[in-house]
Automatic annotation (TrEMBL):
Pathway: Carbohydrate metabolism; tricarboxylic acid cycle. GO terms for cellular component: cytoplasm. It catalyses: oxaloacetate + acetyl-CoA + H2O = citrate + CoA + H(+). The keyword Transferase applies. Gene3D superfamilies: Citrate Synthase, domain 1, Cytochrome P450-Terp, domain 2. This is Citrate synthase. The keyword Transferase applies. Keywords: Transferase, Tricarboxylic acid cycle. One of its GO terms (molecular function) is citrate synthase activity. It holds the Pfam family Citrate_synt. One of its GO terms (biological process) is carbohydrate metabolic process.
């Protein structure tokens, strides 16, 4: 039996949700280019597309928007948990536990899977914002159903309505993170779903996988790197030193993209605009220089900026502290997780791979008194 470490190049399902062309740097949700969706669509419409396989008509979009807005409130026991959990808790642990608690209440109800998917998607920004405000000793801000998903997230976080630019940047950032085929967290969701466990338990597995620094954490590492460099004149020396000492440039490289990640291309433009508005343009200039010099050196090996390269800078400019970045990622990837769960369950097969045994067999059992 052949060993495929990391399941590299193993397909575990057919999908109609997302297609990545890693050589040309293209990404499609349900056949639509990410460039078009980022320019013309929005979170709610693209979520509909990913869940249901087609762009919604006006009525369908209105219904989904209303449902997403209606479901934003949290049950009191989840609010109490958020208020009482230690303030220095990892936000991904808080998110994971809160979703798990929502699953307890929901165990008995008869909603369809997509309704549960909408419900969880709707509540994640509330969980994150309530925790952020509580840990800063600020009053929590109740959701505002007149605002879009992205606007309401920023409103609950900061207590003021976002500017048009902030709303657009937040909306596009969420849209770009919504799905990415068979990444580690989506696979984790499917492993649980394939046992016919419930959707909440499956999503908890996804959050747990996304928490790891090899998956959801590279965006904050990329930002830290720009802060450490401090000035665009320091970039060349920093990169040379990093690479010569065998270190990696964070936010560069991808298992599938061997060219510029299209999501990074889109985020770069928004990072430029939002850092200007927020007085963080010096960080953008550093990033741009790292992008330029890094691509020149590493591009020969097919290593270019990935989505995380500019995402941290964007999230930070929008007011998220770096430890929150993976939770923002989760607030978007929930759409992909649940869409893949629903797709997989239409033709379910228990996921049960094999391990190649390398230990001994036939060892003689010795009573405890006789062991050394
Ligand atoms: N900086 C410098 N060299 C790199 C980098 C980098 N960021 N990434 C890969 N390499 C080199 C690596 O040293 C190796 O070189 P050699 O063949 O000479 O030993 C070669 O490229 C292949 O690297 P690998 O780790 O075997 O390739 P992979 O496909 O397993 O790695 C990766 C993909 C994302 C783990 C890796 O590029 C990396 O560690 N990047 C930095 C962290 C990062 O930005 N992660 C975010 C990924 S995007 C997340 C998403 O899409 O959700």
């Amino acid at each position: 039996m052949e060993l495929k470490k990391g399941l590299e190049d193993i397909a575990i399902k057919e999908t109609e949700i997302t297609y990545i062309d890693g050589n040309l740097g293209r990404l499609y949700y349900r056949g639509y280019s990410i460039f078009d969706l980022a320019e013309f669509s929005n979170f709610e419409e693209t979520a509909y597309l990913i869940w249901f396989g087609k762009l919604p008509n006006s009525r369908e979009l209105k219904d989904l928007k209303e449902k997403l807005a209606e479901e934003r409130n949290l049950p009191e026991y989840v609010v109490q948990f958020i208020k009482n959990v230690r303030k220095d808790a990892n936000p991904m642990d808080v998110l994971r536990t809160a979703i798990s608690m929502l699953g307890i209440e929901d165990e008995s109800n008869k909603e369809e899977l997509w309704e549960k998917a909408v419900k969880i998607t709707s509540k994640i920004p509330t969980i994150i914002s309530f925790f952020v405000r509580t840990r800063k000793n600020l009053d929590i801000i109740e959701p505002d159903s007149s605002l879009s998903h992205a606007e309401n997230f920023l409103y609950m976080l900061k207590g003021e309505k976002p500017s048009n630019l902030e709303s657009k940047v937040m909306d596009v950032s969420l849209l770009l993170h919504m799905d990415h085929e068979m990444n580690a967290s989506t696979f984790a969701c499917l492993v649980v779903a394939s046992t016919l466990s419930d959707i909440y338990s499956s999503v908890v597995a996804g959050v747990s996988a996304l928490k790891g620094p090899l998956h959801g954490g590279a965006n904050s590492e990329a930002l830290k790197q720009f802060m450490e460099i401090g000035n665009k004149d320091n970039v060349e020396e920093y990169i040379m030193k990093k690479l010569e000492s065998g270190h990696r440039i964070m936010g560069f490289g991808h298992r599938i993209y061997k060219t510029y990640d299209p999501r990074a291309k889109i985020l770069k433009e928004y990072a430029k605009m939002i850092t200007k508005e927020k007085g963080l343009y010096n960080l953008y200039e550093v990033a741009e220089k790292v992008d330029e010099i890094g691509s020149r050196i590493l591009g020969k090996k097919g290593i270019y900026p990935n989505v995380d390269f500019y995402a941290g800078l964007v999230f930070y400019s929008l007011g998220f502290e770096p430890d929150l970045f993976p939770t923002v990622f989760a607030s978007s990837r929930i759409v992909g997780w649940t869409a893949h769960i629903m797709e997989y369950l239409k033709d379910n097969k228990l996921i049960r791979p094999k391990a190649i045994y390398k230990g001994e067999i036939g060892r003689k059992y010795i009573g405890i008194q006789e062991r050394e």
